[in-house]
Design brief:
CATH class of the largest domain: Mainly Alpha
Number of helices: 10
Strand content: under 5%
Mean pLDDT: 81
Helix content: over 70%
Largest sheet: none
Number of domains: 2
Radius of gyration: 23 Å
Oligomer: single chain
Length: 253
């Protein structure tokens, strides 16, 4: 118990030290660069001060809520549909072969291109959710398919010989084989959803979103505010990732 606590303390200490190192490097680099640049890079303290100014406003939290709704809704829909398609393609060679070009196309086209194409037909308020869905969907699909294909056929045959029915095989063999891949896809996909969704907001400027606030601050040359909003994006990404990790830990405990 004590050794575990010491290990956690040491890890937290190293993490804090690494963060402090990069903040110091940011401060030193910005201080040197600002002597030559026309538009100055905000220092860490200026960014932190602007961050606390932003979080005191209702408009800021409305934007955070709007962005979370856009991106999380796209993520959830992608997980559901990706799980279904992954199970289908993992159990049907015909379906896997038929849909392979689609998944490759989604993976190959850059996010910015999808955003611009979506902008031609989809209202700007829906684009962040659509882009988040599009980035997560093939990740979940391929991971679930891989998990299903990795099921040990000899173990399944042995279970049948031992008299286990189909429901028991699914519960005791198939699901444990697929679940780790599904878990990884959800954790990885959430990061992609958040980054791509905010990028879509920056380009499309849907009213009352984090991306729109960032774009407006950039247009006003308010770089301290831009950095402060980026800081919030990073913090929210960290919080969302840890929420989903906690959920999976509780479910798999």
């Amino acid at each position: 118990m004590i050794s575990t606590m010491q290990a956690k303390f040491k890890k937290a200490l190293f993490t804090a030290g690494s963060i402090a190192f990069w903040i110091l490097l940011w401060h030193m680099g910005a201080t040197l660069a600002n002597k030559e640049l026309l538009f100055k890079i905000p220092l860490p303290l200026d960014t932190l001060r602007e961050f606390f100014t932003c979080v005191k406003t209702l408009e800021f939290w409305d934007s955070v809520g709007t962005s979370l709704w856009h991106i999380v809704s796209g993520f959830v829909f992608a997980v559901i549909l990706g799980l279904f398609c992954g199970l289908l393609s993992g159990s049907s060679t015909f379906f896997a072969t038929l849909t392979a070009p689609l998944t490759r196309l989604i993976r190959a086209v850059p996010v910015a291109a999808f955003i611009i194409l979506a902008w031609l037909w989809i209202p700007s308020e829906i684009i962040p959710a659509f882009i988040a869905f599009l980035m997560v969907f093939p990740i979940v699909w391929s991971h679930v398919e891989t998990g299903l294909l990795s099921v040990d056929k000899r173990l399944v045959e042995m279970a049948r010989v031992m008299g286990m029915d189909k429901k028991g095989i699914i519960k005791n063999i198939t699901i444990p084989s697929v679940m780790p891949q599904f878990r990884v896809s959800c954790i990885t996909g959430l990061g992609y959803a958040w980054k791509s969704g905010v990028a879509a907001e920056v380009l499309c400027n849907p009213t009352g979103s984090i991306g729109a606030m960032m774009s407006q601050a950039k247009s006003n040359l308010d770089y301290s505010r831009v950095f402060a909003i980026v800081l919030m994006v990073v913090l929210l990404s960290f919080i969302l990732e840890n929420i989903i990790k906690f959920f999976w830990k509780e479910r798999t405990a």
